[in-house]
Amino acid sequence: MSKILVNELAHTNNTSALTVDSTGRILTPARPSFAARGYAGAVTGQGYQSTSYFGVIDHNIGSYFDNSSSTGAKFTAPVDGVYHFIYFMGLRAAHDNFCSIHLDKNGSLYLDGWGSSSHGSVHESITVTAYMELEAGDIIRAGWYSSYNAPSTGTNYGGFSGCLMG
Known about the structure:
Helix content is 0%, strand content 60%. By secondary structure, the protein is mainly β.
């Protein structure tokens, strides 16, 4: 049986692609990934109804996530592969009504989740998660729709994250 002993694999331009630590854990420091939180607002007319943007960007490896108050938050896939996305939103109820949140792929509804709330309830929480096979250049946006309920603003209400799985 043969072994290959390495600490790091790198591209010919010396960009680290993979490291193995002393306990055998494999790290992939260049894997595209992002996490944003704190619903800050929405831009109407993008995709299904509106596209959210967020107040805090926790990380944005590769800079493929764009969080703009003028166009809404979007992720652009840098390479073909399977990606995992999670989008959640805290909502406050102004009336008895439903609300939906959604992931759009290239401007079309891909997946949505919905909830209902009663006037007087403090918050409703809705989450959608998806594994999506994307091609380089595909754009994913997170948004919401409701005629009465409104997302709760603040650092802990709402988030959008994603990463390349492989």
